[in-house]
Design a protein that fits this description.
This protein is an all-beta fold. Helices cover about 5% and strands about 60% of the residues. It has an 18-stranded antiparallel β-barrel. It is globular. The N terminus is likely disordered.
Amino acid sequence: MRSVIFLTCFCAAGAIFAQTGQPIDRPSAQEALGSPSFTDKDRYNSYDFCGSPLGIFKKDSVRVRLDLGMRGTWWHERDHGDSLKRSALAWNLPDLLIGKPGIMYVRINYTPTSISDNTRDFTSGAPGLQNLSLPLQRFGLLIAGQTPSGIFQMALRGKGYYGDEALEGSQNTRLIMGLEDLSATIGSRIHELVTIGMQGGAIGKLDTLRDYRNPTVHDRYFVGKIPMLGWYVDFGKPGFPFASDFSLQIATHRFVYVTRNDEDRAPIRGDSLALKWQAIGDIAHGGITYHPALCLGYWSNHYQIFQPTADNNSLDVGPDSAGRDWKISDLRLGIGTSIEFGKFGSARLEYEHSSMSLDYGADWSILPSRQKGYDRVMIGVEGSARAITAIQLPPSMEMFVRLGYFNQRENSAIGAFESEQFELVNSVDYNSMMYRYTPDFGWGSDQRVIGFTVGLGGSFFNRLLSADAHVALLSRTGAASISGTQFGVDCVYSLR
């Protein structure tokens, strides 16, 4: 392949496609570690549930919202706190939403991000680890509109990034760019309780080595999902005692690669399928409201190795390599509840179990299929300052404190913790992606991640201004044991 054509245009919904981490839409303190997912009734909209931009009409009622903030994560060796292993720092400068509630919204955001990683090996045989840094420029644009009745809704959204990865002690770099979302979405509120929608597009990433010592050495690839199609159904409204969301996504996964002296490597293509459903209810008794919740999900990715075409210059493929295929799938179940204690605050408990499997094609028939179960537990409480009689807050002010704990066992290569940041980093060397030609590339080792979170926030002048901050202490054990810290803060201006 003498060049790689960078194509990219997505349909949004992808929270659970493997190997495609869902990027953080904004580094919000309100989405801190240990935050609830399916037990939070405020997240029962297509925006939070499956990434549909049309969900913003159900989620937001502001005319202007300006969000300035940051989120940073730092990982260290457990016994040597000064030995930084990985870090990621992202800023909102700014995140601006403006529009007319229920009619039209425009949102723009610019999020410069700095990532460092010194855990990557050289891939060409040289010993040792690489000290890599990747400054990214992230950006996004959303335009959404609907008729006053909501019978017709439409949105366009683009989110992308650009960066030049550097290797300490070398002039060589990697050009990394991609689009996380370039989508068109249409929807309709067919009933006051029911909204349906459809999305279409693609996601993609282009990664190219720049070897200044030997310009004839190449290492570049394109990976993406083109096309992606998604459908969703959102059920519920404020004040109704039951809410539910369902989504279905299908996609074609594509990978094309060239390395060394313009050597065309075999392209890989496959199909992806993802289903997700969640539901939550209201049960009120004695001034306390319980919200029992349930979540079900399934995804599968099938990969097939093909022969390259004559020029390997597009996303077309030659004949398939019979028997050289594999499939990774996951079935998960989540149960939990949130509890509201009136003016005192709330509490949440979630448990999820995930059953993953890897099945090999005929060329790897001597290898037994792999199966593994993983679990996640999340506990959180939030208390309001109004519950403390000694604190006399004016009616226009609110203050709260948040405590959270999560404990999850996960696969290090499939939707791992913070993978949406660190999976963008690549070895500044050739043959960097050869591991993709064995089925085990998509199946990592087991690891456990534990986190404790403390958050503090409040709103002022009848929620015209708000601030929210959190700090989390992290621990990860697996192939290596490391500890970490995360800090996030948001300052928001909202005009209603």
